[in-house]
Amino acid sequence: MTRHPVPGAEGLVFALPKGRILKECAPILAGAGIHPDPDCLDESSRRLRFGTSDASVDVIRVRSFDVATFVAFGAAQIGICGADVLMEFDYPELYAPLDLGIGACRVSVAAPEGVDLGDPSRWSDIRVASKYPNIARRHFAARGIHAEIVHLNGAMELAPGLGLSRLIVDLVQTGSTLRANGLREVETIADVTSRLIVNRTALKTRPEAVGAWIARFRAAIARRAEARAA
Ligand SMILES: Nc1ncnc2c1ncn2[C@@H]1O[C@H](COP(=O)(O)OP(=O)(O)OP(=O)(O)O)[C@@H](O)[C@H]1O
Ligand SMILES: O=P(O)(O)OC[C@H]1O[C@H](OP(=O)(O)OP(=O)(O)O)[C@H](O)[C@@H]1O
């Protein structure tokens, strides 16, 4: 694919999450008319910024949590990330106009299989391991429970068995990770899919460019839905 110069002040930077959502994003990007350099989808590539078939758009590939941060601070104007990440950060600078319908899972509370946790309405304090400290804290606070959060970046499932916490708050899709680690889902906090996100200031100051991309993604999602229904 032809290399294009990086976008100048008028160009847009599109933040994509590396990891499991990246491949699911590709057909949606193509439907919206963004064709990144093939290296972008090759997880073994060490590059982080890629040109696209549109000389005015570059793609960056960052961790899922960091997509929200790049877009919130205006370093990227558009991006794709899970609703879990949006809930966790709650950045006022982010506008999430479109549910892309990919990366479906849920944020749930889980506990050790076969352990009686007692009556949750009687809990006052509980220790919870999660990579979503804000979601977890808010969830328990809304029930009048003070949650002491142990912030982990992965392998939360180990925490209850090793006495690090009584509960975990993590993503669940099939439930096989919980089962494989002797845990059960206790409660769903929120259903999750991936969203198109934009920086609110960029949308205000460059409504033609940013608004046009939102419209293209909206049309691409509608076409996918029609094709699935046919
Ligand atoms: N099991 C799953 N099924 C469906 N979607 C998921 C699942 N796990 C995560 N996701 C979605 O994919 C996003 C990215 O998850 P992924 O596992 O690729 O990255 P991560 O492990 O959170 O990031 P990192 O590798 O940077 O720590 C999550 O924020 C969520 O929206
Ligand atoms: O219910 P399941 O279908 O088992 O999916 C849930 C698992 O998927 C995610 O982890 P991932 O595979 O992304 O690995 P990670 O721990 O590196 O984030 C999530 O953190 C759970 O561990």
From TrEMBL:
Catalyzes the condensation of ATP and 5-phosphoribose 1-diphosphate to form N'-(5'-phosphoribosyl)-ATP (PR-ATP). Has a crucial role in the pathway because the rate of histidine biosynthesis seems to be controlled primarily by regulation of HisG enzymatic activity. It is found in: Cytoplasm. Lacks the C-terminal regulatory region which is replaced by HisZ. The keyword Cell wall biogenesis/degradation does not apply. GO terms for cellular component: cytoplasm. InterPro entries: ATP_PRibTrfase_cat, ATP_PRibTrfase_CS, ATP_PRibTrfase_HisG, ATP_PRibTrfase_HisG_short. NCBIfam families: hisG. This is ATP phosphoribosyltransferase. Transmembrane segments: none annotated. One of its GO terms (biological process) is L-histidine biosynthetic process. Belongs to the ATP phosphoribosyltransferase family. Short subfamily. Pathway: Amino-acid biosynthesis; L-histidine biosynthesis; L-histidine from 5-phospho-alpha-D-ribose 1-diphosphate: step 1/9. Its EC number is 2.4.2.17. The gene is hisG.
